[in-house]
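User: Please work through this fold.
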Amino acid sequence: MTKEMTKAQTLKKLIESDEILILPGCHDVLTAKIAEEEGFKVVFFNDCGLAAYSFGIPDIGLLTLTEMVEMLRRVTRAVKIPVMADGANGFGGPLNVYRTVEEYIHAGAVSINLDDQDFPKRCGHMAGKRIIPVGAMIAKLEAAVDASRGHDFLIVARTDAMGVAGVNEAIRRGNLYAKRGASLIFVDAPTTTDEIKALVKGIKAPVLINQVEGGKTPLLRAEELQKLGAAVAQYCTPSFFVLAKALKDFYRVLKQKGTSREDLSMMETFPPFNSRLGMSKFIELDDKYLSIEKQFEDKG
């Protein structure tokens, strides 16, 4: 009998496959569930969407470990597919990274992204980023590896060197991070296809390319990124960019017309929405328990 692969083993196989892994983002339980329903094999829980939708703040390093773990635990319980998770810069130094990895493992994540930005970090497609020395990042990676030892868990090392020190430094860091335990190298914010090609060729490990609508990296089809040699095409922003635009469009219409009756095509209505949330299961359970209650009432 063939032993079933763990979620982390499944993720590693997808990363190392010849076919590029398309990685959608989520920022809460519902967005994760919809990604799973649409057939995606893995989902990425990101901090930028959580910051925006739960706290109304930009992605500039203001979230806490507790806030991330609270939602992460809900997401991993709600879906069966592997959940990769954003760990920012580990919320501090190596000891903070050690605890962060422990918390992410217990919350059900299969991997953590750790970046080499100084504190406070910010979105890789914003200006004003600062990167920490290589030695400081390697110490964090060592802490992550130590904390994950004995667990089926992957480390994703992100470098923001592209926008600070250029392609060669990003390649140098990517290779150093891979040698120190990272299974996937995330180089954020290359600005041209030539830069992407150079990164993928120069880094001797699987490379993730992040696609941010309105960001610095050219938006390419997954098959184009695959031809360039990328292992993962990450789309972390659409889950909250799409929602923001859809809500803005609908609220404008609602204010103008004073009704939603003429614009039902803009939304998922009550019955299918409840069906998506598993309402039938709860109705069956409720009927079961009411039946038990009634049996005892009839007896007397």
The radius of gyration is 22 Å. The chain has two domains: 7-236, 268-300.
